[in-house]
Amino acid sequence: xxxxxxxxxxxxxxxxxxxxxxxxxxxxxxxxxxxxxxxxxxxxxxxxxxxxxxxxxxxxxxxxxxxxxxxxxxxxxxxxxxxxxxxxxxxxxxxxxxxxxxxxxxxxxxxxxxxxxxxxxxxxxxxxxxxxxxxxxxxxxxxxxxxxxxxxxxxxxxxxxxxxxxxxxxxxxxxxxxxxxxxxxxxxxxxxxxxxxxxxxxxxxxxxxxxxxxxxxxxxxxxxxxxxxxxxxxxxxxxxxxxxxxxxxxxxxxxxxxx
Length: 259
Hints:
This protein is 44% helix and 14% strand. It has helices spanning 34-37, 63-76, 91-101, 127-139, 142-154, 162-169, 172-183, 185-198, 217-230, 244-247, 249-256; strands spanning 8-12, 16-20, 42-46, 83-88, 106-112, 207-211, 233-236. Strands 1-3-2-4-5-6-7 form a seven-stranded mixed sheet, with helices on both faces.
């Protein structure tokens, strides 16, 4: 896709459901959800460039580009849709952009503790600095030495097989991919806000905002505001941290199945 080899995993059968993980996450982070969906859905997981086992990106990330990437993944699998698209965290931007730009291919939209930016600002670490930082850290051997340890700090009670964690997070490719996406975060958020003004969601599209308030009243207000703006059903996954697919796979599966 776009000349970049992508890692894609497909399970189950039936209507299509695409799972897209947040910044720095991998296909295996959806593993607890897959057994709950696969009896009823064709479950598609893929790694964005520079994530998981996919090759590095050929260019900067954009909201429209990531929406088109989801479409290209489905095309490559000969799955024209329509599909339920589930986006976690940063990938919530991508999933919503897909629903707006590919309405005929969208059956439902599920935003799992999605990123929310009411007034996006450019990252302090721009793309050029992110690339330089990635190159320096890679030359120093930081990913190989500390990559899995950094993930362990981010993922509590990590259910992923340790060999997969080492295979993915000891690479400079994933470090650089994560830094690059993070540097583009504000720009992608701003692009999505502009897209909302120009391109409506498909009429009658089922939309669910599945949030993990985790005791933060401010985060819950922002997630509820997102649901109102999108005309979505709001649901709180409690108890759960930000990685809802690990903490409450049942809630994610229920939302994806329309329950």
